[in-house]
Design brief:
single chain, about 400 residues, mainly alpha, 2 domains, two-stranded parallel sheet, 2 strands, Tfb6
Amino acid sequence: MTSKCPSTPLHPDANQEIETPATKIPQELTSALDLGSDSEDDGSNIMHDAHLAKVISKTGGPELSEEEDEMDNNDSLMDSDDLERLDPEVMDAMAPMGEPLSPRPSPSSSDSASGVASSGFFDTDTQKRRTPLNPFGGNSQLASSEPIRIIRKKSRSQGASKPLSMKQQSRLVTYIDERLMEIQRRFIKYLSAREDPDNEPESTATQFGFSDLAEALDKVITIIWYSIFQVKVVPFVYHYNILTPSEAAVLGYNEGKEVVLEEITPDFLFGQTNYFIRIMGDLVDYVEKFEFVHFDSIHNLLLLFAKLDNIISILIDEYSEDNGPSRTNNQPFINNTEKIRIDSIISRTKLLVIQKFDVFKKISLYESVDENGKRKQIESDIKKDIQKYELLIGEIYEGILDRTSI
C-alpha cells in the first residue's frame, strides 16, 4: 500500500526556533487512533489500545508501557468481534505485504462526503507487491547451446563394457603421461626458438602453432574420455553451436542428436578426473604464451574448452550424490576439493581469454587501416564472427559453473 505521510522536519540547530506542523489528522484516522481522554479506561478501549500496540510495533512506532505490553501478550483480548470494530485504515496497516487490503471508497465519494482533501495520509491507489526475479538463477540452456540427448544404459545389461584391468590401467596412465610430457617439450622448444634472435621466422622450430597444440591435446582428451565410457563421441550438451557443419558430421550429430552412455561404477575411474583438471590448468599456461592472429586458433581453443566443459558437467550431473547410480560408497566422482580447484582454474581462464581476444580485435582493426590512415571497409562476415566469438567466450565453462558455483 502506498501512503502519503507528512515530511519529517529537519533537526534544528542550536538556538533555532521551528514551527510545529500544521497538518491535521483526518477524521477517520482520529477515530481509529482513539485520541480521547486518558481517563477513559473502559474494556473496549483497553482491547483497542492493545491491538493498536501490535500495529505500531509492526510499523516501527513508539513502544507502549509495560501495562499495555502485558495486555498485548494476552491472546484472549482480541477476538473476531473486536477485529470487525477496527477502522479499515488500521486493518490495512495490519495486512501483510502482497495480500488484498480492505475495500476503500473512491476519493470522489469518501473525501467529498467527509470534507477531507484527497492529499491525505493514505493513497487510495493500492497495488500488490511484485515478487522480484532472482538475477542469479542457474541457466537451463545457454544462448549458444543446442543440447544433445543422452540416453542412459544399465552397466549390467548384456554386452555392457567392463572396467579396465590393473595392467591396462597402468599402460594407459603411462601412455597419457608420455603424451602430455611430449606436448610440454614441444611447447618449451617452440618458446625457446621464438625467443632466439638467430632463428628465422620460417624455421621449422617456430612452426608449432596453437592449432598443433590443440590437436595434440584433443587426442589425449578423447583417449581419457574413452577410458571412462568407452565411447569416442563427447556429447555436446553445451556449446553445440561451436561445431562447424563438418565437425558435427564427423561426430555423427547430423544423423541423430543423441548419445548412449552406460552407467559406470567407481571401478571405471582411476584418476581420469585429475588428468582433466591438469589439462585445464596447462591450457592456461599455453594460452598465456600464444598470440591469436586468426579465428581458427580461437575456434580450436573454444572447442577444447567445450569438450572439457561437457565431460566434467556429465560427471557432475550423472554421478552426483543425489541422482547417481546406486553403489555402496555413494561418493561423487568429482569431490568438493576438485570442484574448488576447477573453479579457480576457470576464473583464470576466462579473464585470460578475454584479454587475448581484446588484443586480437585491436590487431584486426589495425590491419583494416591503410597507409593513409583511411579505414577500409570491414566485411560483414568478420563483424559477425567477432560478435559470435564474444558470445562464446562469455560462455566458457558455463556448464561447470552452473553446477559448482554457490
